[in-house]
Amino acid sequence: MSDHDLLAQRFEGHRTHLRAVAYRMLGSLSEAEDAVQETWLKLSRSDADAVENLGGWLTTVTGRVCLDMLRSRTTRSEDPLHDRDGQVRIPDPVVSRADGLDPEQEVLLADSVGIALMVVLETLSPAERLAFVLHDMFAVPFDEIAPVLGRSAATTRQLASRARRRVHGAEPAPDTDRARLRTVVDAFLAAARGGDFEALVAVLDPEIVARSDGGTLLPSVLRRGAAEVASQAIAFARFAEAAHPVLVNGIPGVVSLSQGRPLSVMGFTVRDGRITALDILTDPERLARLDLSVIDG
């Protein structure tokens, strides 16, 4: 086996971890793959023998690649739920079988990276996001993150602290017990199918935020408050009728199908037994890339 093949083999041992880093940084599965591939190219062109801690080196390089990708994106609106054209933006969901994650998805979604948390990460500046993701989620020391940002370790620590306050302030810890969450999701679907407005309001948090991302082809929708979201759920009961149980970022959710094709992916955030956020992906282009083998029945 050549030196290049040996290096590629060592890199493959870190690929899943690097995808997890890039997904948290970018909120896009395809861009995360691109970032990991760029990291491999940088490794293959470097003096790998001089790298003492390959895993740490790859993690910081992936962070740098993602930072450059974030900075190159079109300037974002001050409203984290919208881009500059007023479109609602939902990060790529990771859809899994209802009965659990495979080992690679377990790594990708460690630390309960739900859709709601990914939405909050989108509100951070690129520098804040890098400092928070690398330090708080992957335990990279600040003195290793600082050179990536071109800042001092103290300033990098401040960036992570500011990001941490925003993350925890915007999204308190949700419920994570899958059995209880599935009960809440099933109650929501049953009420929507039956057109039961009162039952829907009872399972929704009064301050619920519902986001629907239709991409460039379909209108996006942002709704707030239990009454408004309940009315919308009844109006679109066909999604509930065609719902199949899955996990969305490790949390019970649903995929709605029509003639074998996905209409939507619905991710739920639940706290104290009530749904606090509902994230619905209806973008046909992104839905077309969905692996339907994860859907039971």
What is the domain total for the residues? 2
- Average predicted local confidence, pLDDT: 87
Q: What overall form do the CA principal axes indicate?
A: globular
- Please, what is the CATH homologous superfamily of the largest domain? PhyR, sigma-like (SL) domain
What's the oligomerization state?
single chain
Q: What is the SS-derived class? A: alpha+beta
Percentage beta strand: 15-25%
Distance N to C terminus: 45 Å
Q: Classify the fold: give the CATH topology of the largest domain.
A: Butyryl-CoA Dehydrogenase, subunit A, domain 3
Total DSSP E strands: 7
Provide the succession of SSEs. HHHHEHHHHHHHEEHHEEEEH
What would you say the CATH architecture of the largest domain is?
Answer: Up-down Bundle
Low-pLDDT residue intervals, each spanning 5 or more residues: 75-80
State the helix count.
14
**Estimated helix fraction:** 40-55%
Q: Report the sheet with the most strands, covering strand number, pairing sense and barrel closure.
A: 7 strands, mixed
> Could you tell me the radius of gyration in angstroms?
20 Å
List the helices and strands and how they pair.
Elements: H1 3-12, H2 15-26, H3 29-44, H4 54-72, E1 95-97, H5 103-108, H6 115-121, H7 126-137, H8 142-149, H9 153-170, H10 178-194, H11 197-203, E2 204-213, E3 221-224, H12 226-235, H13 237-241, E4 243-248, E5 251-258, E6 261-271, E7 274-281, H14 284-287
Parallel strand pairs: 2-7
Antiparallel strand pairs: 1-4, 2-3, 4-5, 5-6, 6-7
Helix pairs in contact: 2-3, 2-4, 3-4, 4-7, 4-8, 7-8, 7-9, 8-9, 10-11, 11-12
